[in-house]
Amino acid sequence: MASSALAHMSGPNSQLLRVTETGRAPLSFFLDGVEVGALTGDTVLTAILTQQRHVHHSEFSGEPRAGFCLIGACQDCWVRCEDGARIRACSTLVEQGMRVVTNAVSSIKGGAR
Ligand code: FES
Fold it and tell me: Domain residues for 92?
């Protein structure tokens, strides 16, 4: 699907509301296996949270987490890519075709790559 046709704004299930810089070039990535839209220059955290309310589930409580500091300090936004790479969502830019997994507790366990 053309990335420009995918929603990159915010919806009723979004944690973040996109209010500025809406003219950046659209791209698409895969969020838990579903192709969704984002904008060039979005962090993975922004791209995810304009689609849903969490970036992963706590490995301790299983509760949904959406990051905390948004500046790379708290370690609360680690997610996995489908290839097993572990990325910090608030300090990694989303890329065209990136495949991110947020829907499993096991997605954040294990060492960083
Ligand atoms: S939100 Fe704190 S490190 Fe990413």
Answer: 25-108
Q: How many domains does the chain have?
A: 1
Decide if 90 contacts 72 (C-beta within 8 A): yes
State the 10-residue block means of pLDDT for the chain, 113 residues long: 62 88 95 96 97 91 92 94 96 98 60 42
Q: Is the CB of 64 under 6 A from ligand 1?
A: no
- Global confidence as pTM: 0.85
Residue 71 belongs to some domain of the structure: yes
Q: Are 30 and 44 in contact (CB under 8 A)?
A: no
| Centre of ligand 1 from the C-alpha of residue 2, in Å | 30
**CATH code, domain carrying 34:** 3.10.20.440
* pLDDT, position 13: 87
